[in-house]
Amino acid sequence: MGELSDFMQLRLNNLKTVAQSPLARESALAQIKLGKHLFEVASHGRHPFAFILNNPHFWLEISGQGAKFTPLLHAKIASELLCCAPTDSIIADLHQIIGELDSAHGWDGISEMWRLEFQFRIEALHNLSLFIYIDLVTSLRALWELVTQSGCAIPSLRKLWRCCRGRTRRD
User: Fold this and answer.
1) pLDDT in tens, 48-96
2) Which of 171, 161, 12 has its CA nearest to residue 87?
3) Alpha carbon distances (Å) from 60 to 23, 49, 93, 124, 147
4) Contact predicate 82/156, CB 8 Å
5) Under a CB-based contact definition with an 8 Å cutoff, are residues 31 and 129 in contact?
6) 144: Cβ contacts below 8 Å, ≥ 6 apart
7) pTM for the full predicted model
8) How far apart are CA 52 and CA 43, in angstroms?
9) Neighbours of 50 (CB within 10 A)
10) Higher pLDDT, 80 or 166
11) Where are the domains of the chain?
12) Nearest partner of 32 among 17, 7, 54, 5, judged by Cα
């Protein structure tokens, strides 16, 4: 969908090196401001992504230049943000972040979203009385309906899902 700009590749590589410092006062300087958010730059990426940036609202995994089969950005949005911020605001923030990462090919705000994932923490599964694997497997349909259609407690998530539901990946 895009490629990291030369400037941002160099900047993130330098900050990643700073993050690897054994001195806490130096590694604490591995920060970057994207949009209106300040992110900590991790000392290492996670395959296949070269860089990890995080703050209390977003966890961003960013591919390096030349990544052929990896998207520019994989973003996780904190449920706390989804509970209290308007979806349009979250999407605008991500749009601005992507634009800064990929100045030449920034996301147009219209292109399709390829995948939307939901992650259930162990505590949530236990609250739903799902303790063993077979219970989880037999409840997948109900879990899917819970987060996409029915009484999901996160209004912004319902709106985001409605926006993405009709879109499919074009091969």
Assistant:
1) 899 999 999 999 999 888 777 777 888 888 877 877 777 778 878 888 8
2) 161
3) 24, 10, 13, 23, 22
4) yes
5) no
6) none
7) 0.67
8) 8
9) 21
10) 80
11) 1-111, 115-171
12) 54
Q: Tell me if the bond preceding 155 is cis, omega within 30° of 0.
A: no
3-state SS string for the chain: CCCCCHHHHHHHHHHHHHHCCCCHHHHCCCEEEECCEEEEECCCCECCECEEEECCCEEEEECCCCCCCCCCEEEEECHHHHHHCCHHHHHHHHHHHHHHHCCCCCCCCCCCCCCCCCCCCHHHHHHCCCCCHHHHHHCHHHHHHHHHCCCCCCHHHHHHHHHHCCCCCCC
Burial 23-44 (b: 16+ CB within 10 A, else e): eeeeeeebebebbebebbbbee
Alpha-carbon distance of 10 to 13, in angstroms, equals 5
Q: What does the pLDDT average to over 19-39?
A: 94
Report the DSSP pairing between strands 31-34 and 37-41.
Answer: antiparallel
